[in-house]
Specification:
Blueprint: E1 3-5, E2 10-13, E3 17-23, E4 28-35, E5 47-48, E6 54-55, E7 58-61, E8 69-73, E9 83-90, E10 104-109, E11 114-119, E12 128-137, E13 140-150, H1 154-160, E14 275-276, E15 282-284, E16 295-304, E17 306-309, E18 312-315, E19 320-328, E20 331-336, E21 348-350, E22 364-369, E23 379-386, E24 395-404, E25 409-415, E26 424-433, E27 436-446, H2 451-454
Parallel strand pairs: 1-11, 14-25
Antiparallel strand pairs: 2-13, 3-8, 3-10, 4-5, 4-9, 6-7, 7-8, 9-12, 10-11, 12-13, 15-27, 16-22, 16-24, 17-18, 19-20, 19-23, 21-22, 23-26, 24-25, 26-27
Length: about 475
């Protein structure tokens, strides 16, 4: 039976080997610092991390499904090492522990029996925390719950413990000092302020030039608001930018680029010229010449962001999963995902799970036979969810693309720009409208790690 520790509490260890593990929703690394009585490492060999997974008596054990653990052979720890400190570092240094549930650190014996458990609460803005330490006391080994957040950054943490960081980034070059501006002798005439500092038509008379200048061009009404004859403006004492249109006049049409995505015109599919979709844009699933598509392939892809850290470069494995959810008049009737690779009616097929996002091109592919989709199914929504809880801030080049399966030619592509603090993404949907199928790019974030958590949040995407 495990013992729950609070911050500062300790407990005895009567086993020869222990395993320190961490449970955390966000992507993170576990490392160890082996320190002497002065709180410093003896050399860089006493720092155990992903690029140096073995130290004296301590080994980093990979975990394909999550965060690696630390195996500590107490008899193998050198006699002059008094503490083995377990450190949790978030992969995303710009994030913090306050954005997810509190991490839990566990100490188990070699057989996997949990001896101690410590919920590290109270963390807010920190991205690094010394979780706990295994330490000597009067010839015996004990464990202590530490929970000390570190605000100085990872490099500062390890250098404070005596680790040398040879490949730390060089400091930025000093900012050139600008030559001092020449001193202008005082003049009996005060200079006229620049025009861009003067409120239009409200300049006090003592600052105004003898002849009032014409109002700047940026105060004129935009060109698309002017007809052949400029509209009459109110008297000069009322600034033009306070003018409101009368309710009997139709307001001018806004520029096209300001239209909401849902009002964008539908685009046509042209062979050999893939359409680059924007958020909310729709495509009628007809080929050039008006022939309806029958077999489509939805390819979804992403790349994990490569980390260039102080101790080497690596790429975190980001396990994203593509799913297709089938709806009939707002009701979920079927799901095609890694746990069910073919929908019950056989119209949608998942071509296999990608666990890392490595490689070029599509990472996961869904095949949809539009002719076999049951008549009562009105919408198929495509989602991508993060199985391990990584957010899309740690993913780059996320995209979905529509491919004509009969010719294997790309017809349309939608690429997400920038990361989002979500664990799921609604990428696109195909839906019936007026007797034909259409595709709509969506690109909206949700908090979901699998299709089951995504489904209750998709109702708002079912309306065309």
């Amino acid at each position: 039976m495990s013992v729950s520790l609070a911050k500062g509490q300790n407990g005895p260890l009567d086993v020869s080997d222990v395993v320190v593990s961490v449970q955390l929703a966000a992507a993170a690394d576990l490392s160890a610092l082996l320190v002497t009585s002065n709180g410093k490492v003896r050399s860089d060999a006493d720092f155990v991390f992903f690029n140096q997974p073995t130290g004296p008596g301590v080994q980093l054990v990979p975990n394909p499904g999550g965060i690696a653990s630390l195996r500590v052979s107490l008899a193998g720890v050198p006699a002059d090492i008094e503490q083995v400190r377990a450190v949790i570092t978030l992969d995303d240094a710009s994030s913090n522990f306050g954005r997810s549930a509190a991490p839990t650190a566990r100490v188990s014996d070699a057989a996997g029996n949990v001896l101690y458990e410590y919920v590290i609460d109270g963390l807010t803005t920190e991205s690094i925390v010394i979780a706990l330490e295994v330490y000597r006391r009067q010839g015996a080994w004990k464990v202590r719950a530490v929970g000390q957040g570190y605000a100085g950054g990872f490099a500062a943490l390890v250098t404070d413990h005596g680790v040398s960081v040879d490949d730390a980034p060089a400091p930025p070059p000093p900012t050139p000092v600008a030559a001092p501006a020449p001193i202008t002798p005082p003049s009996s005439v005060a200079p006229t302020p620049p025009a861009y500092n003067q409120p239009p038509q409200q300049q006090p008379s003592y600052n105004a030039p003898p002849v009032p200048p014409a109002p700047p061009a940026y105060n004129q009404p935009p060109a698309y608001n002017q007809g052949p004859t400029p509209p009459a403006y109110p008297p000069a004492q009322q600034p033009a930018y306070n003018q409101q249109p009368t309710y009997n006049q139709a307001p001018p049409a806004p520029p096209v680029q300001n239209q909401p995505p849902a009002q964008q015109p539908e685009v046509s599919l042209v062979k050999g010229r893939p359409v680059s979709l924007t958020k909310g844009q729709k495509v009628t699933l007809r080929k050039e010449g008006g022939v309806a598509l029958t077999m489509i392939q939805m390819g979804l892809g992403w790349d994990p962001i490569k980390k260039s850290g102080l101790f080497g470069s690596r790429t975190a494995d980001v396990d994203l999963d593509a799913s297709a959810l089938l709806y009939a008049d707002g009701n979920l009737v079927d799901v095609c995902y890694y746990g069910q690779l073919t929908s019950k009616d056989g119209s949608v097929r998942h071509m296999g799970d990608n666990l890392t996002g490595d490689g070029d091109g599509d990472d996961e592919v869904m095949l949809v036979d539009l002719q076999r989709v049951p008549a009562h199914v009105t919408t198929v929504i495509f989602t991508v969810t993060s199985y391990r809880g990584h957010t899309f801030e740690q993913v780059s080049n996320a995209f979905c693309r529509l491919v004509d399966s009969t010719t294997n030619s790309e017809l349309a592509r939608y690429t997400l720009q920038g990361g989002m603090a979500f664990t799921g993404m609604v990428m696109a949907k195909v839906y019936r409208a007026n007797g034909e199928w259409k595709l709509q790019a969506i690109g909206e974030g949700i908090q979901a790690k699998h299709a089951g958590e995504a489904a209750p949040q998709l109702g708002r995407f079912l309306t065309a």
